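#struct-help
A.M.: can someone run this one for me? Single chain, 181 residues.
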Amino acid sequence: FGEGRLMEARRLCAAAHEFFKTSPMRGKSVLAQLLLARIALRMNEAPQARQYCQSALNDLKQMDLPIVQYQAEFLMGEIERAAGKQEEAYQSYVRARMAVERLRGNLRGEELKIAFFGNKLEVYEHLVDLCLHRPGSLEEAFEYVEQAKSRTLIDQLNHSVHIPAEAQTGQSELVRTIRTF
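D.P.: on it. Structure tokens below:
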């Protein structure tokens, strides 16, 4: 998918979906559905993308996978927006934003946080853009801008500060220079 080989990605992803939908790892089946939706969206097949994404959202109702719930709602917003359904896109982005806020303090591990929050600001960006095109929603757009700025600041304050250890004897000049950065 990342290389743009969409037909091959679709074939492999469909096989993975078939395998995982009957396995104990049903969450992997949902992830496969979301990837199938992304592939269909990239191939300009919005109805099929919506079908895959809606199926994933339906399956998620029976699972406790809030990060995947966020991803599915965000993707549904992308699908609806691509289809020109601005109000439906707005509602999906709002649900994705609420999922972001619920998850903020519950993520464990820096790698997971980076992977998850790497694109969380996109939700706010899309909401602002949609609000700017909706009558009477200018104030709401500014609220989303402020929320995004606040969330970014909170995330930055929550990152632990790394203090390098004291230079040890026997270290090269290069190592001591690197430690000072």
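A.M.: thanks! Residues 77 and 89 are 4 Å apart (CA to CA).
D.P.: also worth noting: Residues 108-117 have pLDDT under 50 and may be disordered.
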